[in-house]
Amino acid sequence: MTAWHRNEYILKGLFLGLWVFYALQVPADRTAAWIDILWVVGWVCAGLLLAFLVGAAVQMSRGLRPWHNWFGFPLVVLLESPKYIYAGILGGLVVGVLSGTAGAEPWAGKLAGYFGLTFADIKHATTDALPKDDPARGTLPGDWLLYCMVLGVVAGLVMYQFRKVDDNRWRFWGGFFATGLMVYFAGNYVSLMPGFKEPDARFNLGVYILMGLPFFYLLTFSGDAEESEADVMAWCGMLGVGLQLMNLTGAVFGSGGLAAYLIPMLLYYVYITRFLYSRRVYKNVLR
Fold first, then answer.
1. Looking at residue 129, what is its pLDDT?
2. pLDDT digits 0-9 by tens, 173-229
3. How many CA atoms lie within 13 A of 281 on its CB side?
4. What is the CB neighbour count within 10 angstroms for residue 167?
5. Measured between alpha carbons, how far is 259 from 275 in angstroms, rounded to an integer?
6. Rounded (5°) CA angle 245-145-109
7. pLDDT value at residue 186
8. Residue 125 pLDDT
9. Which of the chain's ends, N or C, has fewer CB atoms near its CB within 10 Å?
10. How big is the CA angle at 52 (ends 124 and 239), to the nearest 5 degrees?
11. Distance of alpha carbon 56 from alpha carbon 64, whole angstroms
């Protein structure tokens, strides 16, 4: 494991922290929520697109041409451009999140104006930004951004240390039960937070968390570090938390919250035992 491998896990943790903060700040009002969602996700996609174009230019300078293999070229760009991909996704997320905070109006207002919006349109709803009776009021104070970022970095370092455990069995079963614990805490403690006592609020939070899954998995896939049980634990945990908060499993399968545990934990088991190690070989062969 190199210093960059450690940094990848720190950046993945930072992504999780920023995404959780973003999910908690989405307003309750549906119209305002969609503007906020499109604003943040749009910046993440824009950063990813820019990173991909830079990576593609680098590969073309080495003699590769996309029309020689339309399927293989994008994969090579992703696998050979981890620093660009990380910078693009994290950079876009940072712009999207920071532009909606209270102190960003001088520059974020101008930025929003280019898209026909005002700073009020993109401002995240926080408990210290709106009156108590405002339906668009958020759930956390604005200064929790720093807390979420720090906790995200700590989570990344924990994943990195977990990745370094030598015993495969400890890594496997530790990640397996940690996935279930994440679902448990989401189901039993999120409802105690201000603003999430109503099922609709928890459903929306679950949707926003699930929206981050493709970007997190792309970070894992394009990373220079080999995919590990820590990565699978993280995205399976996100899946389980989202399903638990949305209560879709109880409505569809009629099993209460049980399926919210079974689906991510079974996926974790199958993915690691059937696909994880072969995907490592596959990525190395492509490289």
1. 44
2. 999 999 999 999 988 888 887 777 777 778 888 888 999 999 999 999 898 888 889
3. 4
4. 9
5. 22
6. 105
7. 87
8. 67
9. C
10. 55
11. 9
Question: Is this model's pTM higher than 0.85 or not?
Answer: yes
DSSP 86: H
Contact between 269 and 236 (Cβ < 8 Å): no
pLDDT, tens digit, for every residue of 103-137? 788 888 888 888 888 888 888 765 444 445 544 44
Position 45, amino acid: C
Q: From residue 104, give the alpha-carbon distance in Å to each of 93, 94, 215, 260.
A: 15, 12, 25, 38
Task: List, for residues 59-88, the tens digit of each pLDDT value.
Answer: 999 988 999 888 889 998 999 999 999 999
Cβ burial of 75 (10 Å; 0-12, 13-18, 19+) is middle
Measure the CA–CA gap between 286 and 281, rounded to whole angstroms: 9
- What contacts 172, CB < 8 A, 6 or more positions away? 229, 272
How many other β-carbons are positioned within 10 Å of the β-carbon of residue 221?
Answer: 16
Task: Give the CB-side neighbour count of residue 71, counting CA atoms within 13 A.
Answer: 1
Distances (CA, A) of 20 to 42, 144, 212: 17, 11, 9
Is 120:39 a contact under the CB 8 Å cutoff?
no
Q: What is the pLDDT of residues 35-56, one digit of tens each?
A: 888 899 999 999 999 999 999 9
Q: Are 139 and 195 spatial neighbours (Cβ–Cβ below 8 Å)?
A: yes
Question: Cα 140 from chain centroid?
Answer: 19
